[in-house]
Amino acid sequence: MTTSPPTHVRGYAPAPAGTHPNLDWPAYRSTELRAPKHRPILLPHRLTEVTGPLLTGPAGPADNDLTRQHAGEPQGQRIIVFGRVLDSDGRPVPDTLVEVWQANAAGRYAHQNDNWPAPLDPNFTGSGRVVTDSLGNYSFTTIKPGAYPWRNHHNAWRPAHIHFSLFGRAFTQRLVTQMYFPDDPLFPYDPIFNSVPDEAARKRMIATFDLDATKPEWALAYRFDIVLRGREQTPFEEPHA
Amino acid sequence: MPELTPSQTVGPYLALGLTWPDGHLVVPEDAPGAIVVHGVVTDGAGEPVPDAVVETWQADADGRFDHPEDPRGGSGFRGFGRCLTAPDGSWRVVSVKPGAIGDGQAPHIDVSVLARGLLDRVVTRIYFPDEQAANAADPLLATVPQERRSTLLAVPDGPGRFRFDIRLQGEGETVFLAV
Ligand SMILES: [Fe+2]
After folding, report:
1. Which of A173, A175, A164 is nearest to B17 (CA)?
2. Does the keyword 4Fe-4S apply (chain B) (predicted)?
3. Over residues B76-94, mean pLDDT
4. B179 in a domain, yes or no?
5. Structural domain span for residue B74
6. Which of A83, A239, B134, B144 has its CA 20 to 30 A from that of B47?
C-alpha cells in the first residue's frame, strides 16, 4: 500500500453536444425557477471525481421482481426489462446498482402526491433495485406502466416510462434517466422526452421489443442498454503541490 | 462505440425509487468524529424545493477513497450520502469531515442535486470554513469569481455542525460545476 495519492488522474470524456437536455427548457415549466442562470464552472477531474460509491446494496430478494412484492399479483401486462450497462468505450460496467421506479398499469404512482383519478393497485409499489453482473447485465420483472396526465400544459400526458438511476463506478458517471416504450403516440407532445436536443440521442431512451427474450405464456421482454461516460483518451496532467 | 444515454429528470415521485432508510448516514450518528452537514434547497423565488435529493461523495478523515483508483487502499468508508429534501426543503447528512487528499486540494465534498424540474443533475462542492489556508490554495476555488466563492463554503453551525444551503437560481445562486 502506498501513502501518496495518484499524481495523474485519467478523467472522463465529456458528453457530445446535444446528448443531455439543457437545464433551461421552458416547455417543461418546472425548469423556470429551478434551472440555474449562471453557466457552470469547469471542474477538472481529480480523485474525487474518478472515484465513486461502489454500492451493491440495499438490493433485497424481491427487489428485481416488482410483481412479487405483495401478497397478490399486480394488474397489467407482465414484462421483463433487461439490458447491459456499458461505458462509451464499450466496456461493461459490472456490479453497479440500478434503481428503478414507475407508475402502475393504470398510470398511477404509489405516492401520496399522485392523486389523479386512476386506481391504485394494492399489489404494486413500483420500485425496484438490481445489481449488474460481471458483464454489466441486468434484468428485472415488472408490469408495463401506463401513461399519466400532468399539469404542465393543457391536456399534457407523459408517455409510459420507467425511471432509472445509475451510479457507474465514478462520481462523473452518475446518471438518472427514463426508459420509454417503442412507438408511443405521446412522444411528439412530451416536453421531457423532447428536452434531449439530438434526435438520435433521444431515441436511445426507447427500449426495443425483443421476441427472443420473451418468456412464452409468461412475459413480454424489452431490451434497454444504458451507456455511461467512458474515459478521456489522455491522462489529465494534475498540477499538484 | 456505444453512445451515451441522455439524462432525464427524476420527476416528482423520486422518493419511490431513491429512498434509503440509512441514506443520510455516511457514518452512524454516534460515530467518533461524526459531523452533520445540513441545509435547505431553494428555487429562484426563494421557495423551498421539497422534491429534490442531495447526494454527497467524499474522502474519509484521512483523505482516502475506498475505491480501486485510490492507490492507497480503502478503509471501508462508504463515502456516499443521500438525503431527500423534506417539505421545507431541508436535507441533512451525517458524516466525518473529509481529510485533505494530498493533491493540493482543500478538504471538500462533491455534491449532486437532482429534482423535479432539473433535467440533469447539478453538481457543486462543499468546502469548510475552518480550512482557510487550504481553501486559499485550492485550484478549483481559484477559478471561481471571488464574489461567488462563499456559496461553496459551509457555514459553522455549532460544534460538529455545518450548514450548506443550495440556491438553484437567483440571488446568491450556488456555484454549480461542469463535470
Ligand atoms: Fe414518471
Report:
1. A164
2. no
3. 97
4. no
5. 34-167
6. B144
Structural domain contains residue B47: yes
| 0.80 exceeded by pTM | yes
> Can you give the pLDDT at residue A240?
47
pLDDT, position A233: 82
Contacts of B58 in chain A (CB under 8 A): 48
Provide the mean pLDDT of chain A: 94
Mean pLDDT of chain B: 97
User: Which chain A residue has its CA at the smallest distance from B11's CA?
Assistant: A163
Q: What is the CA radius of gyration of chain A?
A: 20
Q: Which of residues 146-165 of A touch B (CB under 8 A)?
A: 163, 165
Query: Does residue B133 sit at the A interface (CB-CB below 8 Å)?
Result: no
Residues of chain A with confidence (pLDDT) below 70? 1-3, 57-61, 234-241
Q: Strand pairing of A161-166 and A97-102?
A: antiparallel
Q: ipTM more than 0.90?
A: yes
Measure CB to CB from residue A48 to each of B18, B108, B169 and give the nearest one. Answer: B108
Q: CATH number, domain at B86?
A: 2.60.130.10
Question: B69 in a domain, yes or no?
Answer: yes
Q: What is the DSSP string of B92-140?
A: EEEEEPPPP-SSSPPSEEEEEEEETT-SS-EEEEEE-TT-HHHHHT-TT
- For residue B176, being part of any structural domain is answered with no
Closest CA to B52 of B119, B113, B125: B113
Poorest-pLDDT segment among A102-106, B38-42, B75-79, B136-140? B75-79
Q: How many angstroms separate the CA atoms of B81 and B95, rounded?
A: 8
Which three cell numbers mark B79?
A: 463515502
Q: How far is CA B8 from CA A93, A107, A192, in A?
A: 20, 19, 7
